[in-house]
Amino acid sequence: MGTLIALEGLDGAGKRTLVAKVVARLEQHGLRVATLDFPRYGASIHADLASEALKGAHGDLSESVHAMAVMFALDRAGAAEQLKELLAAHDLVILDRYVASNAAYGAARLHQHGDGEFVAWIEDLEFGRLGLPRPDLQMHLDVPVALAGERARRREAGDSVRALDAYEKDSELQARTDAVYRELAAASWNSQWWTIAPDTDPGALAAKLAHLQQRDDTPQQP
Asked: Where does the record place the Thymidylate kinase-like domain (predicted)?
């Protein structure tokens, strides 16, 4: 069974770029690596409905924090069998966003903290009722809020398909979400967490992950 790793962080933090570089180096170590991005836009009706709602469609759907969280949770539930197959066939499976994203953004929308009611509800919903596998390791790409926002805006300017949604446009929400991520990491929410700096060397990170995959003990902070 492979090691399940989730990379978390704000919109514009650079998760996709980091994952691509780390995967290339892990494969140089001879490891079998698979990746999966959440939400699964274009592959999941629940993800697409949520995306459309955040861009003004579907009436008042986006106004409900819990309704949006359920949409994102059902997107992941729809990938449960795929996740199981990937873990069976690979040494590491790296996810760009996972359950912690739902917890962090929803709690931030409700002005709650990482130990609040919403985060507990998400844990019960996704890991409990929907039966999603808990990650072996979660990594928080800790990029300053202003820098992440600037990157997201540059991404939008360079690609009309990547138009910012309501969450991405709300800088105060992004700041609160960042605070919740930090709280989840500090509390080791549902796994060990590593905090990754924006200037982290992908090769060094890949080496640590390769070592982790070969060990049986608890992952330690890099």
From this structure: 7-186
Taking the model in full, what pTM does it have? Answer: 0.89
pLDDT at 218: 44
Domain limits for position 146: 3-37+87-213
CATH number, position 208: 3.40.50.300
Rounded Cα distance, 132 and 125, in Å: 9
Note whether 183 and 138 are within 8 A (CB). Answer: no
Whether 16 is covered by a domain: the verdict is yes
Into how many domains does the chain fold? 1
Residues 6+ apart with CB under 8 A from 99: 6, 73, 76, 122, 123, 126, 127, 132, 135, 190
Residue 62 counted as domain residue: no
**What residues have CB less than 8 Å from 52, skipping those under 6 apart?**
58
pLDDT tens across 51-74, in order?
999 999 999 999 999 999 999 999
In-domain check, residue 66:
no
Residue 74 within a domain: no
Secondary structure of 127-189 in HEC code, one letter for each residue: HHHCCCCCCCEEEEECCCHHHHHHHHHHHHHHCHHHCCCHHHHCHHHHHHHHHHHHHHHHCCC
Contacts of 120 (CB under 8 A, 6+ apart): none
